[in-house]
Amino acid sequence: MSIAEIYGTKGKLLEGKRILIGVTGSIAAIEIPHLVREILRYSGKPIVVLSKEAQRFVTADSITWSMGEEPYSEISGHSEHIKWSVDPENRVDLYLLCPATANTISKLASGIADGPVPLTALACIGADIPCLIVPAAHNVLLDNPITQKNIDYLKQLNVQFLSSDKEEKKYKFPPMDKLMNRIFEILTEPQPLEGKKFVVTGGATREYFDDVRFLSNPSSGLSALYVVKAIQNLGAEVSFILGEGNTLDSNLIPPAVTVVRSTSDMYDMIRKQLTNGKVDGLISVAAVSDYQPISQKGKIPSRQDGLFIELKPTIKIVKTIRSEFPSLFIVTYKAEVGVSVDELISRATHFLNENQVNLVCANWVGESDKGFVSKSNEIFVIRDQLEAIELKGSKESIGSDLANIIAEEFERRKST
How far does the chain reach from its first CA to its final CA, in angstroms? Predict the structure, then answer.
């Protein structure tokens, strides 16, 4: 995949930001191609410097493929370390020593610049450029008092550190989300949703008609997950309520999540969150069931000539929450099947007015390239008295764009 195809696909949080990455001789260096591509996805500009030892684990070709430019393995007569730290046109915004060995950390604390990585790091520290060190080594190297003394000294110089928890007696490369979030904290201005709290719902609910069978839909919860991540990137605190019927990879689901079964369970949890603490907004992405069966105990016998199941309406979560919390900022999804664009927007506009919500995200479901089972989607964001906004692409990019619209609309509502 070319750089043009991934650049900016997750947003513009790092647009115009130059990140100089010093890579040292840890096996964790194999993660650097993934890191530079993630920086590119957020519109950043990575520059990579490889130590001689780092090249035992990651090659110059792999870095070149990852970011479309060759890494540096030595400082030339152009004095790149001075250019990156002093020259206004080439000055970097962040020095990221990642991964950092105990050896390199000790060199920095002692002022030793015997290679391209410590040399560039010392130049950036001397120029008051933010510096983030990500150690990766065996615990006997990082936890010993000598290394800890050197780390403490560097912290006194405003050098920041980020490490993952020990695993198998090693400090390994941190989760990519954790590392990127720290980069965002360092390089971005105060976020528009900082200090705000949102409840986000996602996935499918299940309505059981006996102890083993249920009615549901194919919603995966993927759209909601990306909305959660995107508004977190804008500074918001999020409580994620996820339907039991989601099909998300468990590794992708954030730790602070509550899984519920039925529509009534989801309503109860939303109401609990809204009642127990200050919540600024509800973003209802979940595909909840509109009907529930009259449930029977046990398992309905399977060998019958026919089976009739009586259904009754489930609680209308958004409508009920609006009546109970009239000042709450509410965003909701509205799913339709097989209607025209005009009809889709018309129905969503009617829903917005009828339920007095702030935003309605109208989308089609049941199609192979959009909706429930797809990784892409197309939605129309309906706002009161304003033209509908079309968002189309991956669910991840839509989540990012929608988060920006939510932040704008939240601010607009506050100002009026």
Answer: 45
